[in-house]
Amino acid sequence: MEKYIQTMAGHWLQLLISALIVLNTQVHCHGKAMVDFTFLQNAEAKGAVCLDGSPAGYRYSKGSGDGANNWLVLLPGGGWCDTTAECLNRVKTSPGTSSTKNITASSFGGILSPNQTVNPDFYNWNRVSIRYCDGSSFIGDVEEVDPETNLHYRGSRIFSAVIDELLAKGLNNAQNAILAGDSAGALGAILHCDRFRALVPNTKRVKCISDSGFFIRAKDLPNASGREQYFARTIALHGVAKFLPTSCTSRMDPGLCFFPEYLVGNVQTPLFLLNSAFDKYQISVTLKPYPADKPGWQNCTSHTETCTPAQLQIIKEFRNTFLETLKEIGDRPPTGLFISSCYIHDHLFFDSRWNSDGSPRLDNKTIAQAIGDWYFERSVVKLIDTQPNCPVDCHVL
């Protein structure tokens, strides 16, 4: 069992690194304007540091025109590390999710794009992407630092310190504000959503977006105990439990309170859930019927046309369980939905997925159009693709 758990954790990190390579490749394409990295002021004194102890920070593009007083803060994803060994390996092999050393300027795409055609509702807002380098969805906080490893578990301090700095830059006077997150960052956005709203009490419209962050427990599907144990170890290592809502921890083990199905029903701030019912990350990594079918499962989830009938049945069961779990959360907070059948994970960063001729569409709306309509209350947006019985190749990068 111990070997199984260690290997499973390694696969989470391996897929994460691959995803980040793709993301970085996308972000630097097409000659987009570069956005400098801002190191958090007095980060070390505040304890707002990455896993390796380097100062936390963010990328910020100032708003203009009618967007000058509107703010969009994004929490990127990048998985988690659940053991000291995994966190050390993360520092060694994935500095993009553990450090700010040698960081360079980058560019914004998707929901952060400055291109009005790509991003008509938010292109001229104040747009911020906080560096994800803590491995705990911006939630953990452990005061002690082991001198042998020099690992710092300070995700919650990073979030708080960056938001404080943004408040001083004008977020405190925002007319409209969004806290969005992707993957592990989406879980952070759910957990911080009401807290974020409380920090901007004079803002008339505050909402949150979770992109590919609806990780389901799926207790009747393969590897459910592995998923639960992984989250429980992450919570313990990073000191997350004290930041989890008592509405969840008073009813169940804190290890289950990283699963959004037990969280979103108690979020008071309007929340948009953007996901695929065939989420590629969850299916290929967390659902793996490991170790019995490891080679076949890897090939199947990389090339679904090669899946056996038994493998396809597991994937179909995941999708059915995902949709049933979604139903159970009801409509509190007022929830926007865009649930596609595309075999992808992550939507907000990519122009091609966010808003292009080839973007996923439901009710003839791209993701950008759906979220814009929901945020500005132009229409009710509850779009769920229930037709396909198998993952759909939506032909988007």
Automatic annotation (TrEMBL):
UniProt record similarity statement: Belongs to the pectinacetylesterase family.
Organism: Rehmannia glutinosa (Chinese foxglove)
This protein's record includes keyword Oxidoreductase: no
PANTHER family linked to this entry: NOTUM-RELATED, PECTIN ACETYLESTERASE
EC number, UniProt record: 3.1.1.-
Enzyme class: hydrolase
Ranges annotated as spanning the membrane: none
SUPFAM superfamilies named among the record's database cross-references: alpha/beta-Hydrolases
Record protein name field: Pectin acetylesterase
Pfam family of the protein (one): PAE
Keywords: Cell wall, Cell wall biogenesis/degradation, Hydrolase, Secreted, Signal
InterPro entries: AB_hydrolase_fold (IPR029058), PAE/NOTUM (IPR004963)
